[in-house]
Structures are given as C-alpha cells and as structure tokens.
Design brief:
This protein has 149 residues and is α+β, with helices and mostly antiparallel strands. It is built from three helices and seven strands, in the order αβββαβββαβ. A hairpin with a 2-residue loop joins β5 and β6. The longest helix is centred in the first third of the chain and has 17 residues. It is globular and about 40 Å long.
C-alpha cells in the first residue's frame, strides 16, 4: 500500500510522511472492502480544506491488491498533513462490505488522531442527512498509532 514512494521524486516532508503513514495504517487496519475516506481541516479565517479518496482492498487470501487513485490519495494526504500541522480537523471513513456499510471517524487534535466513539460520531454527523434505506452502522473507530503522531 505504498502510494508515493519509488516515484523518482524527493523524499516527502516529515508532516506529509506522517500523514501518509497514517493513511496507510488506516487502510491496513480497515481490511477488505471498498473504503471512502473524507478529511476536512478548518483553516483559521479561511474556507476549510476538504479532500476525499477511495480505496478498494481485496481479501488478503484472494486479492491482496489495493485499488486506489494516486491523485485522490495525494490530495487526502495533503489535507491530512495540514490537519496534523494545525492540530485540527476530522477524518471519516465509510467501509462498504457485501452485507453492510460501516462508518468510523477520527478527530485530528494535539495528540494526533483520536478515534471518535459511536456517540461522538453520531453527534458530529447529526446535521448530515442520512439515507433511511441505508444499512450504515456507526461504530467507534479503531486507534491509530503511526510513529510521530
């Protein structure tokens, strides 16, 4: 799941490297499924930065490949890096499986990425219209422990 290395470019700045490690860890821990990631970072006195990306992760036993658009992942990683710098933002992930859909989230704060509990996630999304037909399950996010966070 290495989206940016071995591309002949200079090494990433440290904050971008941290953001990339965080996205890679998130996708590794999320496991198989179609993942939609969205990151929003509020900049003081400016419009928020928003980016989204998709990754289709196959079952390790049958299809270990990751289908992801490098441009989308680069944009998401850049917005996440800004969030890590200013210590403010949110990252949401919806995972679509064959039988259901799961939504999780993390707050970008002074300690890095803090998992949102199910209750905090529901409160944060209270203003977002929900599909009444949808089978989305809101769950407490798993912890992320990327070095440097």
């Amino acid at each position: 799941m290495d989206f940016f290395h071995d591309n002949g470019r200079a090494p990433l700045p440290p904050t971008a490297e941290r953001a990339l490690r965080t996205v890679m860890e998130l996708l590794e821990k999320a496991g198989p499924g179609f993942h939609h990631l969205a990151c929003q970072v509020g900049l003081p006195g400016d419009d928020p930065l928003i980016a989204s990306a998709h990754a289709d992760i196959g079952d390790e036993a049958h299809n270990p490949d990751v289908g992801a658009d490098v441009s989308e992942m680069a944009d998401l990683t850049e917005v996440l890096a800004w969030g890590l710098v200013i210590r403010c933002g949110v990252l949401l992930m919806q995972t679509d499986l064959e039988s259901a859909s799961r939504i999780q989230g993390w707050v970008i704060d002074g300690t890095g990425m803090t998992p949102l509990t199910k209750c905090a996630l529901l409160a944060a999304l209270a203003m977002v219209p929900q599909d009444p037909e949808g089978a989305a399950e809101f769950t407490t996010a798993f912890p992320l422990h990327s070095p440097g966070l």
